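Our consortium's second objective concerns turning raw sequence data into structural hypotheses that experimental partners can test. To show how far this objective has progressed, the report includes one record in full. It was chosen at random from the queue rather than selected for favorable results. The single chain below, 134 residues long, was entered without modification.
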Amino acid sequence: MAIAAVMMAAVPTLFSAAFPGIEMKAAARRTAATLRLARESAIRKGEDTHVLVDLENHRLTLAGYRSLTLPQRLTIQLDGAGSEMLDDQRGMIRFFPDGSSTGGRVILSHGDHGYQVGVTWLTGRIELESWSAP
């Protein structure tokens, strides 16, 4: 039983180390899900809702819900509205009761490829797409 417990604890770590692309795509999907939840919350509650993106701590925070911590091995970038940037390491993507947003883009990468999660300002639509360095 002890050997099985050690193996079960080690396998996810070995799996993510062997397949960083899978880990990156899962992180991008969780990022998109967090942003979708923020949009739905703004519409349902009828009040502005924001997701705080903390680049230094690799964390997305949606108030009232638990924070999403992203893998440290990934590089995270935030392209957001200037008025929503708190400093060079923290910024927000805000959603309004009508479903619209301030817009923005979160890029999760490892090396020169990764995924981008974009938020369209007019509609608040969230899209997950592949990304590669220019």
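The partners drew two points from this record. The chain has a mean pLDDT of 90. The longest helix spans residues 20-45. Both points have been shared with the crystallography group to help prioritize constructs.
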